């Protein structure tokens, strides 16, 4: 009789928090997400990168608000209303990633992650780890480190 087999890597499941931006569903690995919150007051930062839309106070912490729309090369949302953000940490700093809306948490098989489609916009592809084909839509998995690396890219230029 054989001993218990080690679980297959293909059976590993990863949980993603889904967000919506410009009608597209995007996924963020849940292990990178610290908070989901409604943005209230924001203080602008003079001379900051265009992606940085301001600073927030989140339970006594200063959080840099980053527009995911701007990171993806999209125009700002014109509609006023409740703005949602995903709280993330990157290199010891706190960020609030502004999104159009927050969806659900999905548990997907790691082996089902596919490479970016060849027709995916190059700017979007540079911020993506790959895609999952869902029944009714494509879920683009964001690379949080790449999304928040805009300052490094600017310094390199």
TrEMBL record:
<dbReference type="InterPro" id="IPR036061">
    <property type="entry name" value="CheW-like_dom_sf"/>
</dbReference>
<protein>
    <submittedName>
        <fullName>Chemotaxis protein CheW</fullName>
    </submittedName>
</protein>
<feature type="domain" description="CheW-like">
    <location>
        <begin position="13"/>
        <end position="153"/>
    </location>
</feature>
<dbReference type="Pfam" id="PF01584">
    <property type="entry name" value="CheW"/>
</dbReference>
<dbReference type="InterPro" id="IPR002545">
    <property type="entry name" value="CheW-lke_dom"/>
</dbReference>
<dbReference type="InterPro" id="IPR039315">
    <property type="entry name" value="CheW"/>
</dbReference>
